[in-house]
Every structure is written in structure tokens, then in C-alpha cells.
């Protein structure tokens, strides 16, 4: 078998097999399977993709093709608190870039980065659909709206644990 | 004692983000504390639309509309309004023109000109309770179709209504159904709902699914009956967790009530609906790409024909419609095509939902009859531009559309007039911009989006858009030339003519439309190296005000590139060609004589 060696433990291997089996190992369910798998692991490293490919009986290249195509899937682990800044048009015209800049300088990471302690990761996304609250960002799914750069410090302080 | 009053609380994404769930908890706590559980009931609804003033709480039957409610207001609402019958004045909406508070939403400027057909139930019913939907004619249209009408009659009714696809392109819905119905009869077919709302700044579909999921399920079943499909699929963005949850609840309830599943209403008609999740790819709004994504593949579009009606999901005939299109179907069946087609313009019937956002006072979700003017939307419904600034443009159609300017303010809005004005209806995002927005930067913003979202399959889109973005970046960096502007126009046209799918073919629209409407601004960026909105950082200049400059020479000594010249006690000057915009001079000046313009 080509591809990387599977470096995951037995329990994780079982989990992936169970997820695939819950979708009858159908290749047509690949995206749903990847959603579930990412929900469990937080990200989709190569080894995980390999197991999914084996379960579905498809080349790992096809799995990778899908993972890399969709922005929702990530091959890198996120921080404990995943921050996403909305850069949809409504947020953009209301100054979302300034919020992003404030986060970057506060966390000292760039877009797509994770802080050294693994606590925060910073991403941008296109529209959470809360345009009435623009500009917005989300932290682990919780939405913060009507932001100004000065809010950034206070909000990050909520996650000071 | 029967429940006499209802407190409706918006549970849409916008208001939820502003703690509407805590408001609900507090209200319920107060209701229990005052032993009112048999008298008043809290109902979580979908979006009321007036997101700007959210969270919204509405009291039925007196229709009191409370705005910007906080969890701590719950006590007062219960003790004053519910128990003593006195409205909480400080939570009422204050009309900006008269400065008087308005308690019933139908008297607010924001709602006066709206006509809610697709959004008829949003903000009225509990979307997680099928009985509230049924009480407002939910599934009545499906019953009527199955028991009183043939599929041909239903299609004829939809055709006669003049309904066109609300996803953007405006293809006649009845005709689409007819083609799917006639395609390969007897084979397994599919009804697909496109809920992959990827247009940044648009949230119509999300609000519809969150506020009234049953209407969509009902319409899909009607479509299934018409085209001969027993299976429906909703392709929804994974970024919309609340809408997904409400759909799951709605599907389970409809199955329990025998309104989905086998032998619906005892007519022998079978129809089931499943969800398929998107994973963040704008191109999947294109129907062939969407179908590939549902099959678990990369969401790359393919050439049409074959159209999905001929060969779609799993190679079977498939009908794809947008959420808002489906939301109109049950009403058309219940009230008739003649009623529907009496609303709107000659070629665009009915209403359109717009997500009004950006630099406008009343941000929110609105539904207006086709043919309304932009002026009515912006200045009456929208309440004008934020902060009294000057209106500059409205962007419609998102990354595929263009902008409308002052000269379009009185154009009646419909599919065709928007195309004639160089934009498009799109899914209904409407972003208002004021004098502080740079139109070149806006074009660059959209191109940045398209470059990110291009699937990479065809060269014009993959390579061409990247080149467009580079030229735009060059211009906003102050390095553009007049040849670049020509190049922008030519390349845009080539991409439009040669790209494979709708995404690529429309991606240069924001560039072309801003060039057409704001040519002066492009020329200013290129020739004068000036951005009148002051948004393009690279074009800002450090200048010394000669009246304030004392000639102390502090700035000239500090300048790392010796770009400042002047003699002692005389005003100094910055040589713009040498200036590297480091900002050292501003810090050194004790007299506030240097500014960034």
C-alpha cells in the first residue's frame, strides 16, 4: 500500500471505521463522513484521510482532493479557542479588517495561525449571516457583534483561563 | 385558564448572537415566579427582519414591538406589560423622523412598504412546532395538489404565476419543473433545494430556513409530485448550525404527521427529504457543482448541457431550486397564480427578499414587491445612510453582481432592470456604501473573494481572475497606469466570454461595473495617486500644514530618507517621491503640523 504510514492509535482507528460504517462505507457520503471525522478529531491529518480512504475503498488522493477543496476542512489542528473573523461584504465595509488587525497584533499570529501555547487560532470566514451585527467574529461558535478594535482585548480576556 | 398572551422572541442567528436565549430564560423564570404559566407563553420564532434593532420581542395580541431588549428587561416586561397592561415605553422603537415611539411594527417605516410572501411566517410562528405552521396553512397547498390537481395542472399554475428562480439567474420556475417532469419519465428523479448561501453579505435563505422550514419541505414535496420524484435533498451550508437543527426537527415532525414519507395523506404519493452538508465552497451554489458536492466529490462545475433536468444527481433527472423560490410555491397554490402575478412588474412577478446591510440605518431582512425603487428601499425602509453620510452605491448580486449608483435610485428593481444597469438580482444581498468606501478597493475585495473561491478547473477563472486582482492591487498601491485600466477592461471581457461556469462568467462584474460607474475614481488612483475615500493606505500622503509649521527642523532631522526639506523658521515641505510613509515625522512634530491625507 502506498501513502503514509498510519500513525494513529487503535481507538482512533476504530472511531474512523465506525463513522464510515455508520454511512455504510459509501463513497458518496465522503463529505458527511469527513464532517463527522473532523468533529471528532478537530482536524483531518493525512493518517486519518488514509483510514477513511481504506474504509470507503477509494484512493486517498480522492479524499485529499475533497479535503483540500473545501475551506471547512482543515489539515492543521485549531487552537483551543478558534477565532473566526467574518470578512463578508457587510462586515468588510464596516471595518472588519481593523478587527482582524487588532487580533493579529494582540495574539501575534497571522491568519491561519495558532498561538504558541495552542490556545487561540485565527481564521477568516465569509459571512456568518449576522450582517445586522457587522462586523462580527466568532469564538468556538459564539458570535460577537458590533465590534470595534478596542473590544478585542476585553473579549480575549474572557478566555483567560 | 387558557393562554391569552404570547411573547414572541426572535431566535434567529442575529438575535441569538445578542443573547435572545437568555431573554427567553429570564421571561420564563418571571412567568413561573408570577404564576402566569397558564396565561402567557413564550414562543421562539424566526427572524423578524429588523436586525438593526434586535433582539426583538413582540407581544401578541396587542402587537407591541420591543427593540434592543436585554435579559434584564424581562422582569419589567412581565410585571408591567403582562400583569398591569402598561407598555414598557423605553423599549419601544422611536421613529427617527418624528421622535415618537411606535409600538406596532406595521406603522414603522421599516415595515410599511414591505410585502411578506416568502417571509410570511418568519417571526410569527415557532419554527420547531409543526402545528403552528399548519395553523397558518402549512401543508394545505400540498394537500390541494395531491387531492385536487394533476401534476400538469400544478406546473401550469406555477408557470402562470410568472415565478422566476430567486437564486440569481431568474429562470422561470414552472418551465424548469416542466422540463424535469418530461425528462426520462418513470425513472428515479430528485428534487434538490439549494441552501448553499455563499454570497457574503446575504442571509435570506438562512433566515427562511430558521424561521419557516416547513414551507420549504412542503414546496419540495409539491415539486416531487410534479416531476415524479420521491426523493428530496437539501444542500445546506455547514456554517448554518441553527438552520440545520430546525430542518432536522421539521423533517422529523413532518414524517410523524404523515406529511412526508410513505403514502402522504393517503394518496399513495411517497416523498422523503434528506440533508446534505456543504463544506465552505462558494462555487457549490452553481447547480452542477452542487450536485457533484452532494455526490461526495470536489464541487467542480461541469459544462451544460446536459442540464440537471436531463442528468443530475447520480446521473438522474434532477430539479434544483433555491430556498426562496420554494418558499413562494405554497402561497401560489393556495392563493392562485392570478393573485401572485398581480404583484410586481411585467416580467418579474411577486416579491424579492433582500438582505439589507452595510452603511444603512436599518440593517435587516426585507421583502418588497418587484418594481420598488432603490430610493424607497434605502431612504424609506432602510432609513437612510448611517451617520448622515452621502450615499455612494449599492452592491447587489454579491461577487457576481455590480453596483448601482445615484442615477439608478429611481429605477424600478426587477431582474431585467438590474441586468440593464450592469448588476444582477443575485440571491438578494444588498450592501449599501457611502462616501467613505473606495470603489476600487471594493472591486479588489470581490476579486479577492473570487480568487479564493475559484475551483481552479478552467483557466480563464483560475488565472484570469488572479491577474485582475494583481492589477487592482497595483492600482490601490499607487503603481497603476492607464494601460492597466485598459487591460482590466479587456481581460474582464475575456473572462466573461470564456469561463466555464456562472462563477467565472460573472466574476469580472464588480470590476466592470465599478469602472463604468466610477471611472473618475480609477483615474484618480492611477493619475493623481489619490484615493478620495482615504481607504487605500498606500495612496495616503503625509503633508505639512505651512500655517502650523514653525520651521523647527525636528521632522527633517528625523526623516530616515531625507525627504523633508526647508530652512530654519520657515515652513518645511515633504518630497512625496522620496517619502516612504514611515510616520516618523508625525511623531516628532510638536505643533501638529503634519497630517496624513
Describe this structure in words.
The complex is a heterodimer of chains A (161) and B (597). Chain A is 43% helix and 11% strand. Chain A is α+β, with helices and mostly antiparallel strands and 161 residues long. Chain A has two domains: 10-69, Orthogonal Bundle (Arc Repressor Mutant, subunit A); 81-157, 3-Layer(aba) Sandwich (Glutaredoxin). In chain A, strands 2-1-3-4 form a four-stranded mixed β-sheet, with helices on one face. Chain A is elongated and about 50 Å long. Chain B is of the alpha/beta class and 597 residues long. Chain B is 39% helix and 16% strand. Chain B contains 24 helices and 20 strands. In chain B, the strands form six sheets. A five-stranded mixed β-sheet of chain B has the order 9-10-8-7-11. A five-stranded mixed β-sheet of chain B has the order 13-12-16-14-15, sandwiched between helices. The interface between A and B is large, with 40 and 54 residues.
The CATH class label of the largest domain in chain B is Alpha Beta
Strand coverage percent of chain A: 5-15%
CATH superfamily of the largest domain in chain B: NADH-ubiquinone oxidoreductase 51kDa subunit
Helix count of chain B equals 24
Q: Can you identify the CATH superfamily of the largest domain in chain A?
A: Glutaredoxin
Which regions of chain B are unreliable across 5 or more consecutive residues at pLDDT < 50? none
Structural class given helices, strands, pairing of chain B? alpha/beta
